[in-house]
Amino acid sequence: MADTVLVTGGAGFIGSEFVRQAVENGLYPIVVDRLTYSGDLRRLSPVIGNFKFYEANTANYSEILEIFNQEKPSIVVHFAAESHVDRSIFEPHAFIDSNIKGTLNLLEASKELAVRLFINISTDEVYGELGTQGYFSEDSPLKPNSPYAVSKAAQDMLGRSYYKTFGLPVATVRPSNNYGPWQYPEKLIPLAIFKAIHLEEIPIYGNGENIREWLFVSDCIEGIFKVLESGKPGEVYNIGSGIELKNIDVVKKICRILDDLIPQKKPYESLITFVKDRPGHDFRYGLDSSKIQYELHFQAHTSFEEGLYKTVTWYLKNREWLEEKASKLRDFWTKNYKK
Hints:
The protein has 12 helices and 12 strands. With 339 residues, it is of the alpha/beta class. The protein has 2 domains: 5-179 and 215-239, NAD(P)-binding Rossmann-like Domain (Rossmann fold), CATH 3.40.50; 188-212 and 244-282 and 303-336, Alpha-Beta Complex (UDP-galactose 4-epimerase, domain 1). 48% of the residues are buried.
């Protein structure tokens, strides 16, 4: 019998890419999503009819256990999470409910149903921040600095405890910053695209020197499939691209693409404005991804130039979706992006 794969957060930005690739690989995934502000089933429109969907809250154990009893999944891939650092600073309670309580419920249900593999999707932010040198390996200590990162570190440790205490086969994945089509415009790249095409100021925290490692979303999912296929329970796998860029340089690259595609009287870079820095803003993340490269034979292959061009052109072709989502963020931007 083929594996039944249950995907939490499958209507989200990264989770939906997993569902689309799962269908392409011949799977019929079971998708569980609460459909909060950032969830959208339209992300799954290319594979409609090829998955089963449950609207449910992972923080509600009875709902989750009922789905597990109904579907009897053999693999769980857990994407569902509150994921925006800014929101975690102003609204931390939702992160505890979703990322910690929700994960606990999924682990409990997985233990009850004797799931064959549970893949916990984490983040590089659990490691804290780096200076200009060095990289985080899977053995680096966890030093999370935001409520979001703390909630994800707790999620990781819950997974570890269920592996160590109950023998539940949990593998943990820690990707770097994902970007690509369908990302909600609270994140840097779609936010910058939206602001630029509306000729509005493009806000950048502090001096824009903060550094992130950028991973195209389809590459990230290919790495997660490698873990699904041949990863070892109890192990942690970093998934990075090796592509590190300052936030200011990312936005400038977006502006230059738009200068070519939809030129204006002034270059789009003239819209860049620096705003008050985010509290506790980590300076740099950088991953040592050699473990997944050597053990599972995975290597990210999308250059940043290629991935960013695909991303910008996707948003230009899907402006209606971008407009709809961004319209709900006006109050959030006004509150948070202050000069």
